[in-house]
Amino acid sequence: MVLALFESERRATDILNTEKGFAVHISPLSHTSARNSPHAIVPDILAHEYPAGRQRINDSGASLSDDAFFEVKSYQPNNTRLDHNNKETKPADRRANEVLNQYSTKLKGLDKQYAADIVGNGDNGIVGPFESAQKRFIGGQVIPLVVGPFGEIHKDFEKVLETLARLAAAGEDGMSISPPSQH
Question: pTM of the predicted model, to two decimals?
C-alpha cells in the first residue's frame, strides 16, 4: 500500500525478522501466522521510507526517511480510562504509554529468555539485542496511534496525520487539489 509517497505493509510482519531486526534465528515458528507467534513483534503498520524530519544541510549522508512501525489502539469510555486526573495525563496519552510499556516488556522478556548471557536477569541496565532492535526504527520505539471514543487522539497520532497531510499536499496530486497556502 502506498500512502503519501511512502510504502507500508498491511500483512503481519515480524519486525525482528526484517533487515533492521535481530537477525539470529531463535526457534522455528510453531504458529501459522507471525502475529500469533510468542517470539514475534508484529506491529499493526510497518512503514518503509517514512519521513524522519527535516534536514537543514544535506551533506551529512543522513537519510530524510527510514522505517517506522505503528500500533493502532483505541479505548472505551469507562472508569478505568476516564476516572483519573485527566488534566495531568489525558486518556489517549495513558493508553499510548501502556502500548509503549507492553512493547518494552515483551522485548525485555525476549532478551532475558534468549540472550541471558548478555543481559543476565535484566537488572544490570544492559540493553539486549531484542530491545536494541526496535531502536533502529524512527523514534527508537513503536509509535502508538491511539484514538478515543470521542475522537480524541494521542499526540503521536496527531504528528503522523500532520506529516502525511503535508506529504500528500506537497505531491503532484496534492498541488492540483489543494489551494496554495497564504502563509
Answer: 0.72
